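The instructor's notes for this session suggest beginning with a concrete chain rather than abstract definitions. Hand out the sequence below and ask the class to guess, before any prediction is shown, which regions might be ordered.
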Amino acid sequence: MDNMKKNRKLIQLGVILNLVIVCYYGVPSTFAREYSLTPSLGITAEYNDNVAFDRTNERDDFLTIISPEAEFSSETVRGTFHTKVKGDIFRYLDETDENTENLYLGFDGAYDMTERAAFRADASYIADTTLESELMETGVVNVRSDRQRTNGGVGFTYTLSPRANVGIDYKYSKTDYDRPESEDYDYNLVRGNYNYHFNTQVDTLTLQPYYSKRDSDIRDADTYGITLGWTHLFSETDLVKIFLGTRYTDQEKRNDSDESFGGTADISLLRTGEVYSAQLGYSRDIHNDVSGDLIEVDRIYCRLSRKIVGRLSVGFSGNFYFTRSEDDSEDDTRYFEVIPSLDYQLTKHHTLRLAYSYSEDDDEAYIENKSERSRVWIAVNFNFPYQWQ
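After discussion, reveal the predicted structure:
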C-alpha cells in the first residue's frame, strides 16, 4: 500500500510538471525571447569497496548507474522559468538488495510584476537515500534508508532605489523516512533581506533577520537569528562572499526544554579563468539528523579544475565535516572525502570522466570509531541541447 501511494504521488507530480511545461510551450513567441530543452544521459561504471559504509562488515561490489535527465527553460520579457527531471538507477552486480532508484522533480521561476517589484517561486520533490543525500548535507553516516523530501518556496523583492532593495522569503520542507527508527520532520523558514550596493557596484552589504521552526514527533525547535553579509567583486572573475550571524534556538523534547546560542557562517571565494576555476568555502549551521536531534555542522569544502592540454582537464574536490549534537557533545563526528578526477571532452556536448574517491568517518559513539570507503568510477555523459525562439 505504501508503495502504491508513493508511485501515485510520483505520477501526480510528473503530470503536474509536464502540464507546466506544456503551458510554457504554448506561450506565443511574441512574448518569449528563448526556449531551451536539454535531454541528457549519464552512464557510470563503479567499484565500491564498502557499499554500506559499514565499520565492521565491509562488502565490496561493482555497480552500474544510469542517469537520464531533462531540463527545460524559457525566458520571456518579464520572467524566466526552469524545470528539471532526473533519475538515477543503481544496479549492483552481487549486492542486489542495495539496488535502488533516485528521482528528482523540480522547477523554479521568477516574474517582474513591475519595474520595482519581482516575484519568484520554486518547488521540488526528491526521492533518494540517506547514505548519499544526508551524508552530503550533514557529514553523518547513517544506515541506508529511503527518503522522500518535498520542498517549496516563494519570495518577493522590492527595489527601493538603484542602490537598495528589500525582500522576504518563505521556504517549506517536509522529510519522510521509510525506516521506522528515523524521525520524519517539517521545516519552515521566514527570512527578510535588505541589500545595499555601494557606489563602486563591487560591494554589497546584506542584512538577513530570520525565523525557522522544525517539527517532529519527538521535538519542536524554534530558531531566531540574524545574518550580516558582505559580497565583494574583485574583478569579473574573482568573487568573495562572507556571511556571519548569530542564532538562538529554543527546543522542546518529550516535555524537556533546552536553549542554545550559536554562530552561523557562509564564506566562499570563487575564482575563474580561461583554463581554470577554484572555489573554497566554509559554512556553519544547524540541521536535523535522522534520529530527530539537532546537530551543528561545520563544513570546509573546495572545488578545483584546470585544463591540462587540449580537451583534457584535471579536477579535485574535497569536503570536511565536523558535527556536534546540540544535546550531547559526546556524539561528535568527523567525516571527510577527497575526489581527484580526470575529464576528457569527447565532443562539445559529450564528456568522459575517470575519478577516485576516498572517504573516512570517525564517530566517537562507536567502539570501532572509524569507517573507510574507496570508490573508483568511469562515467560518460551525453547532452543533446536544443534552443529556439
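Then share the key points. The two ends are 45 Å apart (CA to CA). The CA atoms of residues 3 and 9 lie 10 Å apart.
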